[in-house]
Structures are given as structure tokens and as C-alpha cells.
Amino acid sequence: MHDGIRRFVVIWAAQLLSIIGSSLTGFVLGVWVYQRNGSATEFVLIMLCAVLPEVLLSPLAGAVADRWDRRRLLMAADAGAAAVTGVLAVLLATGALQVWHVYVVTVAGSVFGTFHMAAYHSMMPLIMPQRHLGRANGLMQVADSVKIAAPLLAGTLLVTVGITGVVVVDLATFLVTRVVMFAVRLPPEVTRPGGVATAPEPLRRDLLFGWRHLRARPGLFQLVVVLAAYNLFFGMSGVLVQPLILSFGSAAVLGALMFAGGAGVFAGGLVLSAWGGPRHRVRGVAVFTALGGVLLALHSVAPSPWLIAVVAPAFLFTLPFVQGTGMTVLQLKTDPAALGRVLSTVRTVTQAATVLTYLAAGPLADHVLEPMMAPDGALADTLGGVIGTGPGRGLAAVFLLTGLGLLLLAPLAYLWPRLRNVESELPDAEDVHPPEPVPAETTPARSPPDDDATRPPGRDGDASPEAGTEHPDVAQGVQVAQGDSDAALSRP
What does pTM read for this prediction? Predict the structure, then answer.
């Protein structure tokens, strides 16, 4: 096994444990607040406290990740998050925890988590060789899937060890992660791919570097727009899936269907990690976006748990192939020294779309679509003939509309030429991993012929006819060294 693959799997497994622990704590805190006051508003505020710091601080975290040693930054962020969790454990053990403490703890944990994600996401693509990035992103999607299944595990732990015990489990996962990061040795081209700059740009300019980098590459910028729009439509339905299920099912049915949905994401991530993703990645993003749109719209057809049990896992199975494959394109086309700033900008844009869903989904369903989908509502004779009328059908209408939104989003990959051709127009960034040695020939060696015409095409560097084909933009100077081009972008 390649050393990079081995390191990736070890670190990924440790981070998976940490994600599980953090997801458990986040869930039980939300339950604690809701059971204390019964306020849905306070419950939503916790979600906003978890997301807003990431949206606001990601550019800063990305700039720091590109300036400092990424491994040390990740360990420092983990230590800070562990300290926050320790304070929470003390408050719980002493019975002093108040609702406002939960908000403060959530914001502080999100701040440290933002710096953790900047270091983690900019370092992991460099640990794995480029040809395996699709598989790596599949595993990253597998790790994200545990967030969906966390409520079931958290519910079990709440019964057995209580909320304080759940927080202690979270602390234990931090300890495991720290031990692993101490033990794994990473080469400097992974932790500091850009080296130590002799005249670094002012930090305030680095905050906008990722935005300038993407705007200078229209194909990548359009890909980020597609991913943000996907997050908007997916997030809108994701926020409302629990109320939709509870409109016709029990809490036990909700738990079972949430677990089934998590299994769908998990299975999709495993398939992507084994397959590596489609050869034409942008086309794959478009195809799986369209397929996901159809499956999302089918959630609205009837108020049936059996229907949701089929279409929800199927829809979530497509999720890794959109987000993971899109991330692979961004990683391949970004200079290693700029990964922190660029990927953090991507997270800012896509997570901002998620914040919009938190703010808009509830009012849209409760105050607009639910009245319109009542038996005597404005849409009862039109849309009601398709998905029915009555309580919960306004929620179903959101799923129908967001599914159609994804279905219309898919053709953008082909309507925008720069996005459609981004994989051929932009050169891949330099792979920090040397190529694997070719096994020695077992047949007797023969003297090479003098005639160059017998030489197989493409063996002399990249001089194959396909590798030599350049888009006109490349001929005009896009194919300069990636490091030099990024430096040029950052100058006034």
C-alpha cells in the first residue's frame, strides 16, 4: 500500500471518531435545550450558532492554514475544541448548565471546528496521491454520513450513560485523535506545501485570495455556484424532512427513516471510495444532480413512510457523487499552497446557502405553502391534484419544488462552456507525491531501436497527442506554473 494511502486511512479513521463524538454532543445539547423550554426557536438558534462562525471565519481559517503548519493547526484546533467540551462536562456534572451556556459553547466549538476543517481539508488531498482523490473524497463523504445517523446512537447513549456520559465519550474521541496525529509523521510538502514565504501577503489580502482565485477561473467559479445551489435545494428539504415525516408518522418511524437515510449516504460514499468517481467528473456531477432531483421530488407524491423509506436513502445515495466529485475537481485544479484559502472560500459560499435554508425553510412551509395547500387553498385544484391537500402537504410541496430545482440545475454544467470544459482547459496542480516505481521487466532486455517512430506515443513526458492538445485559453498563458499564477493573482 502506498504510504500516502496508509496515512490517509489512519488519520481519516481518527477524524471519523471525532466527528461521531461531536455529532453526539451537538444532538444531545439540542435535545436538552428543547426539553427544558420546548422552544423551537431556541433549537434553531443552536443550529445557527453552529453554522454562522464557519461562514464568517472560513476565509481567515483558510489563510491561516496556508501560512502555518497545517498539522499543528489541526492539533491546536482539536485541543481548543476539547477544552470547550471539557467546560461543558464540568457544567453538566455540577448542574450549573444554562441555555445561554449552550449558545456560548456551540459558538466556541464552531470557531475551533472552522480552523480544524480548514487544516484538515487542505491537508488531506495532499496526503493521498492525486489519482486516488476521488476515492479519498468518497471516504470523506462516509465520515459526513455519521452525522445523519448520530441521533440513533445518541438516543441509546442518553438512556444508558446520560448526557454527561455522552460528553465524556466526545472527550475520549478528542484524545484518540490527538494521539494519532502525534504518531503519524507527515512530510513537509503536505503540512507546508508552499514553504515559508519570504514576503508573505498581508493577511487582509489573503482573506480575499480564494475569491479572486475562483473568479479568475470561470469554470471553477461556476462549479462552486452549482454546488452552492445544490446545497440550497438540498438544505431546504433537509431542514424540513423531520416535520414532513412527523406529519404522517410517529417518532419511532422518524428514527428508523433517519437511520435509513444515513445508510444511503454511507453506501454512496463507500461506492465512490471504491470506484473513484466518473471519468468525466463535471458530467457526473450533472447526472447525479438530475437523478437526485427526481428522487427528491418523489418525496412529495404521498404521505407514506414506505415511500420515504425507498426514496430518501436513494436520494442520499447520490449525495457523495455530487459533493465528493465536485470537490475532487476543485482539489485537482488548485495549487497545494493555496488549498486552505480556496477550499475555505468554497465552504463559505456553500455554507452561506445552508444558512439561507435555515432562515427561509420554516416560514416558506408554514406561512406560504401550507395555507396554499389547504383543501380550500390557492393551489388545491392544481398542485393539490398531484400531491394531495391538507396538513403536511405544504411541506411536501417544498420537496417537489426543490426536486424540480435540482432537475433544472443539472443542465448548467452544459449550458456554461467553461464549466463543461474545465477539466480539459485548466491543468491539474502538481502532485506532491512522486510516481510509483515501475516494476522491473521480467523478459530479457533488448536494445532500443534507433528509429524514434517505434517509440510508443505518450511515453516521452506528456508528449502524447492527447496530452499535447491545448485549449486556446491555455495557449494564451493559463498554463503557467500554478504557484506563479497564484502569486500574480494576489498582487495588486
Answer: 0.81
